[in-house]
Amino acid sequence: MNIKERVRSLLKEAELYKDQRLLKEARKKYTDVIEILEQQSRIQNRDALIAAVEKKRDSLDTAIIKWDQSRVNPEVSGKVQNLIKRLFTASEEGISDEENGINEAITLAKFGQYRQALEEFSRLVHLPIVCASAAKNAIKCYLELSESDECIEAVKGWWQDCCFTPEQYASITHFMQSAFEKSGLDLGDAMAEPQVGFAGGEDFTAPIDDDIIDITSIGINFQSGPMEGQHVEIDVSFQSGSLLSLIVASSEKALLQLLLKGTAIHDVDFYSPIAIFKGAAVVESNTGILSGPKKGDFSLDIRINSI
Fold first, then answer.
1. How far apart are alpha carbons 9 and 15 in whole angstroms?
2. What pLDDT digit, counting tens, does each position of 209-239 carry?
3. Pairing of strands 243-248, 264-271
4. Does pTM surpass 0.70?
5. What radius of gyration do the chain's Cα atoms show?
6. What is the pLDDT of residue 137?
7. Where are the domains of the chain?
């Protein structure tokens, strides 16, 4: 079998595997084709052929991620979702129903229920007092579900529905740019501000929920104890105002023991897309994750005390 016939055969096998939802097997066939072409410098239009096959393989990579995500994040029943929200959402005095809704949706997301959490955030994004927080957390859910294109369309739709002020929209798109980059995605100019006129008489004087700057990760500097002198950085999974949700692996036993509920953290670096801030925080919860891709790890909620 000559090179041309071998490549055709492999491509045909890849398509057959795709039709049977054997995505990883199909990806392997595309990789085999690319490796063969790279070794054949005399093939006409070789670089264009390689680029075309790489594009097919990249498309498969996205499909594989979505397929794997659907298997590791099984949706549980509504009854169980309500139980998760009730048991693991920290109760706070003096917060609005809208803010409590944000916290409940974050709780669902922490337990891998991204689809249901996204539905909650999408509902809350139409409420002025929590619209920016809901949108930013919805963006994180979309990325967890590997739905970047859907994310872009959703945020554009919310803007066209006049859910945000121009200032809020600018803050959300800046946050979105950072989140996409962190996930290895290129947002490009997809979120260039559209020319949309707000409905006459629209009132945007209601309190907005972004007076606390977006925090992407924190760094804890331990001044005493078994981790004295160490600096530990942890990504922020979700944020509701001054409340940050973090995920810590179950293998980090020493760290988890130092971050029990009620623990004050006096030397914290708060990393945002624009700067690093020094401050302090307190651990409000330290909870084992019972389901989803982070099952067995721990969800920590920390409250920013000063920044």
1. 10
2. 445 688 889 999 998 888 988 999 999 989 8
3. unpaired
4. no
5. 23
6. 94
7. 3-72, 78-182, 217-306
Distance CA 188, CA 148 (A): 12
Domain at 217-306: CATH architecture: Beta Barrel (2.40)
Using CA atoms of 261, 178, 160, 213 in order, give the dihedral in degrees to the nearest 10: 50
- Enumerate the β-bridge partners of residue 234: 218
Q: How many other CB atoms sit within 10 Å of the CB of residue 86? A: 11
Distances from the Cα of 61 to the Cαs of 18, 95, 119, 262, in angstroms?
A: 12, 42, 26, 43
Residue 185 exposed, middle or buried by CB count within 10 Å (0-12, 13-18, 19+): middle
- Give domain 78-182's CATH superfamily: Tetratricopeptide repeat domain (1.25.40.10)
Cβ–Cβ under 8 Å, residues 289 and 297: yes
DSSP, collapsed to helix, strand or coil, labels residue 15 as helix
Q: Strands, E, within the chain: which ranges? A: 217-221, 231-240, 243-248, 264-271, 276-288, 298-306
- Give the model confidence (pLDDT) of 56-105 as tens digits: 888 877 767 665 554 445 555 555 455 545 544 555 555 678 888 898 88
Q: What is the 3-state secondary structure (H, E, C) of 103-147?
A: HHHHHHHHCCCHHHHHHHHHHHCCCCCCHHHHHHHHHHHHHHCCC
What local confidence, expressed as pLDDT, does residue 293 receive? 72
Structure tokens of 266?
């006096």
The residue assigned the tokens 């659907």 is 70
Distances (CA, A) of 174 to 72, 121, 195, 214, 274: 30, 19, 18, 10, 10
Residue type, 131: C
Q: What is the pLDDT of residues 108-157, one digit of tens each?
A: 888 788 898 999 999 999 999 899 999 999 999 999 888 999 999 999 99
